[in-house]
Write a structure and sequence with these properties.
Order of helices and strands: EHEEHEEEEHHEH
Number of strands: 8
CATH architecture: 3-Layer(aba) Sandwich
CATH class: Alpha Beta
Helix content: 25-40%
Oligomer: single chain
Radius of gyration: 16 Å
Bound molecules: pyroglutamic acid
Distance between the termini: 49 Å
Strand content: 15-25%
Shape: globular
Amino acid sequence: MKTNTILLTGFEPFGGEQRNPSQEIARALDGRVIAGRRVVGAVLPCVFGASVTELKRLLRAHRPELVVCVGQAGGRAEITPERVAINVDDARIADNAGAQPIDAPVVRGGPAAYWSTLPIKAIVAALRAEKIPAAVSQTAGTFVCNHVFYGLMHALRKNPRLRGGFIHVPFLPGQGQRGQPSLPLATMIAAVAIATDVAARTRRDFRAGGGQTH
Ligand code: PCA
């Protein structure tokens, strides 16, 4: 019997950092069995364009039933499933190939936005139940993470049975400037494993408060 596959991606380090927790999470969970599915963990380049090309290659190669992309959001203190991907690249810093698109569409002529099809509220509830700080995020930014998230949802748009989304994670201890929030790698690996398990088992998200008022 064919075992179903979950594709889990992280990113290489960027912005002068030596590490990226998302890369280490994807490597740690590669080969794990979660909710009866085999996890393929892969690392994407932090490069506009090439990241989505590699993601599409992975989709063709592995034919996953679920896709969870993970990236680093330095400065955040919580594990943050993203609600929405928007059709804009607007980079504050250059990507790892030196490109810095400003106000450019991810997909020319594409819709303004795509919703995550992961159960983001259920994921946050499951993480909080394990005492892991978590919150829904209303923006994945406009750098390579949002670019990959939008590219993913655009690729999945004609296949509603294939679900996917994006989760941002904080810095590792020692990254960024002194005093920046961080979480230990082991906590973040556990968090993404829990989130992936919930996503694989939960078809319908539930309604829970916790949205921001502004
Ligand atoms: N974080 C960046 C890109 C790669 C990553 O891990 C972002 O939030 O866009």
